[in-house]
UniProtKB/TrEMBL annotation:
Protein name, entry field: Selenoprotein F
Lineage of source species: Eukaryota, Metazoa, Ecdysozoa, Nematoda, Chromadorea
Entry keyword Endoplasmic reticulum: yes
Major subcellular site: endoplasmic reticulum
Location relative to the cell: Endoplasmic reticulum lumen
Entry-linked Pfam families: Sep15_SelM (PF08806)
Family assignment from sequence similarity: Belongs to the selenoprotein M/F family.
Length: 151
């Protein structure tokens, strides 16, 4: 890749700037990336799996994500019913493995009889501002959601 940049700089001395090399769609697909759907935020997670060598190609094949603007809340309550929890194994894992603890008291689990899994986002006065169903969410989605939506 750097060789191409160097060649471009040597071949075109009349240009004051050299364009950054960008992998074309076919090369991205050959490398295992789908540039139509690959979001750049996912490239950053490659290091979690010790795949740093793929990061530069991934970043050249990905689409830049527009920053999604939304309100952030100080507290989230994950409301679950213990009698229904077995029907939602990912939410059950989040509750039973005490994953809410990693958010330092900002995420609390509340057992409400008969309710399907949902998240209630609260303001500083503990007033419910938004309620979202999380029935089909996995534990990673819950963690990402709380990281993005909590102050």
């Amino acid at each position: 890749m750097w060789v191409l940049l160097l060649i471009a700089a040597v071949i075109s001395p009349g240009f004051s700037q050299v364009e950054e090399y960008k992998i074309d769609v076919d090369e991205c697909k050959a490398a295992g990336f789908n540039p139509e759907t690959l979001k750049c935020g996912l490239c950053e997670r490659l290091s979690d799996y010790h795949l740093e060598t793929l990061m530069s190609d991934c970043q050249q094949c990905c689409m830049k994500e527009e920053e999604f603007k939304h309100n952030k809340y100080p507290i989230a309550i994950l409301e679950v019913c213990e009698c229904n929890l077995a029907r939602f194994p990912q939410v059950q894992a989040f509750v039973h493995k005490d994953m809410a603890r990693q958010f330092g008291g900002k995420v609390r689990v509340k057992h409400v009889r008969g309710v399907r899994p949902q998240v209630a986002l609260k303001d500083a006065d503990f007033k419910t501002m938004e309620t979202l169903s999380v029935e089909k969410w996995d534990t990673d989605t819950l963690i990402d959601f709380f990281n993005q939506w909590l102050e």
